[in-house]
Amino acid sequence: MKLITVILLFSVLYCVQSKNWLTDSARFLKEAGQGAGDMWRAYRDMREANFKNSDKYFHARGNYDAARRGPGGAWAAKVISDGRESLQFGSSGKDSDADQFANEWGRSGKDPNHFRPRGLDPKY
User: Fold this and answer.
1) Per its UniProt record, what PANTHER family does this chain match (predicted)?
2) Helical (H) or strand (E) element with 22
3) For residue 31, what are the contacts with CB-CB under 8 A and spacing of at least 6?
């Protein structure tokens, strides 16, 4: 419930300067929801693949797919990625930095296949 409230408030603040702030807010919310779905799909695929050293690829892919939705998707990807990294207790700082690098790589529109490990099933 808190996430929905934050998304709603951010979308209103983000779009309030526009003449069409209501439609811009709705578009932002739609993009954020779709971006969250992209992030979930990447996480689900990572768990299903269960392939060694593939987490950076899935981080980059989820962020890439979400950011392609638009500003709402990029925002959702950043919030989810940052939240996920802050909740990963016991993870080394070096691994977290590498994850964040892959997250930013994908969000910036760069090809997530840069992180794709050899032998990963082509369906991913």
Assistant:
1) SERUM AMYLOID A, SERUM AMYLOID A PROTEIN
2) helix 21-49
3) 69, 70, 71, 72, 73, 76
pLDDT digits (tens, 9 = 90+) for 113-122: 999 999 999 9
Domains contained in the chain, number: 1
| pTM higher than the cut 0.85 | no
Q: Per the domain annotation, does 7 fall within a domain?
A: no
Q: Report yes or no on 65 lying in a domain.
A: yes
Q: What is the pLDDT of residues 38-65, one digit of tens each?
A: 999 999 999 999 999 999 999 999 999 9
Q: What SS3 class is residue 17?
A: coil
Parent domain of 57? 29-115
